[in-house]
Amino acid sequence: MRVSLFITCYNDTLFPETGKAVVRLLERLGHTVEFRKEQTCCGQMHWNTGYLKEAIPIIRHFVNVYRDAETIVAPSSSCVSMMRDHYMKAAELAQDAKLAADVESLLPRVYEFTEFLVKKLGVEDVGATFPHKVTYHTSCHSQRSLHLGDIPIRLLKQVRSLELLPLENPQECCGFGGTFSIKNPDVSSAMLADKVRTVLNTGAEVCTAVDNSCLMHIYGSLHRQRTFVRTAHIAEILASTAGAQEDGK
Amino acid sequence: MPNSSDARDAIFSSIRTALQVPANADTAAVAAEYAALPRLYKREGTMNSEALLDLFTHRLVEYDAGVCRISAENISREIARILGERGRKRIAIPDGLPPEWLPAGFDFQNASRFNEHQLDQLEGVLTGCTVACAETGSIVLQNAAAQGPRSLTLVPDFHLCVVFAAQVVETVPECFARLDATAALPTTFFSGPSATADIEMTRIKGVHGPRFLDVLLVL
Amino acid sequence: MKEQAHSPWSNRSFPEAAKDLLADSQIRRNVRHATNIIQAKRNRVVGELPDWEQLRVSGAAIRAHALAHLDHYLAQFEDNCTRAGGHVHWARDAAEANRIILELIQRHSAKEVIKIKTMTSEEIGLNRNLEANGIHPHETDLAELIIQLGHDKPSHFVVPALHKNRQQVREIFQREMHLPDLGEQPEDLASAARTYLREKYLRIKVAVSGANFLVAENGAVCIVESEGNGRMCLTLPDVLISLVGIEKVVPRYRDLEVFLQTLPRSATGERMNPYNSIWTGVHAGDGPKEFHVVLLDNGRSPILADGEARQTLQCIRCGACLNACPVYHQTGGHAYESVYPGPIGAILTPQLHQMKDARSLPYASSLCGACYEVCPVKINIPEVLIHLRGKVVQQDQKTLAGKLGLWNIGMQAAAFLFEDSTRLSLAQHLGQIGQKVVVSKNGFIEHLPLMLSGWTQTRDLRPLPAQSFRDWWAQREKAKPGAASSSSPQPSNATEKPHAE
Ligand code: SF4
């Protein structure tokens, strides 16, 4: 299958390793990956912060870049949920019937990364080995918007040598919320403190998720506290193989 | 009194401006829209009567109510037994309560027209009910024969309620179906004795309403 | 007496008010404890109903329908309530409602009234107004009594005193009820309240309530409660005054079959709350001889005009969104500085204020979606929050200060970058070089300037890696044999610059 990777703006800029892992894994599974260099951002930051009209050209740009793509995969549930939950609204706001039609035709071809593996490709065992204790944080958009359910957990359970440790209140928000963490730094920090406490209590070496945004937030505190717990996007775990160099961050 | 009709007009005009609707609604269209609202929730129960009564009993017990299953010929005897065990003698009863229910040896007072001070002097109240809902363990009283006005079952601290098996339905919608015809009567649902969880979410039985509830379930 | 329609508790923004509350570890513990318990109970009893989703769908549809024809159903309610012997009054704003209620009470020369918990009366500041006019209101709901005697404010609209623990309640009761030997068991405290209030029920002849639902079809009013204090107030006095928001009407009696399933399960995690009272007008020999309904607008009707935000008024005040909210868990209700806290408060309060006050509330959410997931009438709170943020941004952009504000400039700049990948790429390169000024010796960013400084108070930020993904990809493509033709196909009709709008 020809997979068009939407890396997302923050993974592109901050987490290139996640993108590399996605490419490595999909190629290992026998698929062709393309990267449309015109891609930028899904518009989520602007939309969610209330810069609605500013988000519209960004959304239009996204739709134009991927108009003819066969399958689009993004290693970020929040960006995919931005598209599914808000693109139609944005088209309405822009009073742009053509954009609405484009969005309608595009959305069924967009997948979150783990959703793509399990729902579209039908694989759960991706042949990974990751000899570490891992705990999984259920990001808000992955469960409440995309309804991924246990898909990520099923994938992790197939990884050789990986010990999966359950997280207390896995579904509770880590407090990032994009610009929320800047506008409400104290409340966000308090939410994060709860999350980090539960992560540390698992005894895991690595905390994973399907969103690097949450992981960046969680790691921000893990690092500040000088713990040795790392974070790694689930793609990096699924891409790693025995003997291969690990690239948890 | 402020001029209420000015306020009324202003509010209606503000609503109509906001909704962009004319002053006289097309009632047929509204009714049609209402009739088309989705109603796919469960309405009819599916349990057999045995399971239904078990569920109802279970719910009542969870609420700390006493429940006894009895047959119709024993109503009076069972009332005597429970009042005896509870040590209560002066009992309020409503208009229309079947006289054959009343055992000898107790002071039953028709209290349908008592005020709250008189009611406050009594040790309990005995009534029937209109309908009961198994799924929620609720009993519904209306101001009708054998149930009386609302204050009757509110002020005394102990309530003994006679519920016939045929009055027990499974779901809340079935309950409302039975109430629909007499919807205008003052109606009280009660589900267990009065309770609060306002202090540290600890459920405490009996704040203002009756603190003790016994149910005679007549098969 | 000219009162403001809505007086916010103060002019502090949510982040400022939250800061104080976050420092109060006792409140946070109490809130956490209470919300954990209600949520667990709620999840259990909701999980029992296989038709929960259908109940939500129907509940949302009924409420939305009622709002779309609010004038029609209110007129119907008025007719039927009046026919049943009730009196219907209309209040445009808080001041008008206060005047109507005061006059009704004065007409009966009452010096005291008993009250059932009603957030609408908090909204109009009724108690303050009555006291100023020499009338003493007695709250009868246990939690409201705790709030009233403790000179406090409600922090939740189902369990208003959940921020107080038993020791704190005991102190208040000991002091205010003159019971120096009162124990601290919840049973002791409830029983003290029973004794304290029972005398009032039997003596005071005017009661004030709110209502959960008004039924248009027959003029019925429905109130759900737990303690029986509601029944006392609704049944024993001679005069009952119910203050109700105009949005509370439902078309038909049988619609209650939906809400009386979803409301108790969502609110307190019970299959049914201990008492529901439903009555129409006055009934000879049963309950008050005089019944008044005061229908309050106070900023509600304009909300109907906003198609996106109208769903806010579907709310049945179950409080489930508060209990599920991770922000509320941290701060409790007082940080919202409104009678209506939590996620629903974050969308309702600013709208009731016509977006003039409480403008930080739409931002008091991480948009995690937990509120929408539990809402029994399917109010998409995150969607409305974003919609209201859009309004705040638009308002700000109309002022020069807003236009030149850091947020606006930053977002405009980001939008400029995201419209064109070459700009984004250039920015990435500049960032990789420019960040040197903020990266600490340990290789992380520990202090950020200006509006970003809050972030790095408790968190480190990973610096930009030396190479972005897109640069890595370009390098990889170049290294491939026969790399002359790009593996990134130029999409047939995609243009680097989207067509102008
Ligand atoms: S918004 Fe929904 S969940 Fe929140 S109080 Fe209202 S009805 Fe309940």
How would you characterize this protein structure?
The complex is a heterotrimer of chains A (249), B (219) and C (501). Chain A is built from 13 helices and eight strands. Chain A has 249 residues and is of the alpha/beta class. Chain A has two domains: 2-120; 133-248, Rossmann fold (3-Layer(aba) Sandwich), CATH 3.40.50. A four-stranded parallel sheet of chain A has the order 2-1-3-4, with helices on both faces. In chain A, strands 6-5-7-8 form a four-stranded parallel sheet, with helices on both faces. In chain A, strand 7 (206-209), helix 12 and strand 8 (230-233) form a beta-alpha-beta unit. In chain A, helix 11 (185-202) crosses helix 12. The longest helix of chain A is centred in the C-terminal third of the chain and has 18 residues, at 185-202. The model of chain A has no long low-confidence stretch (mean pLDDT 95). Chain B has 219 residues and is of the alpha/beta class. Chain B folds into two domains: 1-37, no CATH class; 47-218, NagB/RpiA/CoA transferase-like (Rossmann fold), CATH 3.40.50.10420. Chain B is built from six helices and twelve strands. Chain B has helices spanning 4-19, 27-35, 49-62, 75-86, 116-120, 172-179, and strands spanning 66-70, 90-93, 107-110, 124-127, 131-133, 138-142, 158-164, 168-169, 187-190, 195-196, 204-205, 212-218. Chain B is globular and about 70 Å long. The mean pLDDT of chain B is 93. Chain C is built from 22 helices and ten strands. In chain C, the strands form two sheets. A six-stranded parallel sheet of chain C has the order 1-10-7-4-2-3, sandwiched between helices. In chain C, strands 8-5-6-9 form a four-stranded mixed sheet. In chain C, helix 2 (25-47) crosses helix 12 (256-267) and helix 9 crosses helix 10. The longest helix of chain C has 23 residues, at 25-47. Chain C is elongated. The chains are: A alpha/beta (249), B alpha/beta (219), C alpha/beta (501). Chains in contact: A-C, B-C. At the B-C interface, helix 1, helix 2, helix 5, helix 6 and strand 9 of B face helix 2, helix 3, helix 4, strand 1 and helix 5 of C. The complex binds iron/sulfur cluster (SF4). Residues 266, 315-321, 344, 374-377, 379 of chain C line the site of iron/sulfur cluster. Iron/sulfur cluster (SF4) binds next to helix 13 of chain C.
**Average pLDDT of chain C:** 90
Question: Would you identify the CATH architecture of the largest domain in chain B?
Answer: 3-Layer(aba) Sandwich
- The name CATH uses for the topology of the largest domain in chain B is Rossmann fold
Low-confidence stretches of chain C: 1-5, 484-501
User: Oligomeric status of the shown chains?
Assistant: heterotrimer
- As a whole number of angstroms, the C-alpha radius of gyration of chain C is 27 Å
